[in-house]
Amino acid sequence: MDAALSFQDLTKDYRKWPWSKPFRALDGFTLNVNRGEIFGFLGPNGSGKTTSIHIALGLTRATRGSGTMLGQPFGHVPTRRRIGFLAENVAYHHITASKLVKLHGALNGVPGPLLRDRTKELLQAVDLEEVTDKPTQKFSRGMVQRVGLAIAMINDPELLVLDEPTSALDPAARVQVRELLLEARRQGKTIFLSSHLLSEIELICDRIGILHRGRLIRLGTISELLEERDRFEIRARNLAGGPPEGAVAENGFVTWTVPAAAQRAAIERVWAAGGELISVTPSRKNLEQVFLELTGKDSTGGPQA
Amino acid sequence: MRAILYIAFSFFRQQKLVVLVLLAFTLVLLGVFLSESANNPAKTELAIPYLQLIGYGIFMPFLLCTQMMYLERKTRRILGILSKGIYRWQYITGLWLAGMFVSATQLTGLGLAMQLAAVWRGWEFHIWPALGAAFVAAALAGAVAVTFGCFLHPMVATFLAGGLLAVPYWLSSRSVGGFDMLLPVVPIFRTIMRSALLHPWGGDPWLLVVALAQAALLLYLASLLFARIDVTSAVE
Question: How far apart are CA A267 and CA A279, in angstroms?
Answer without folding.
Answer: 10
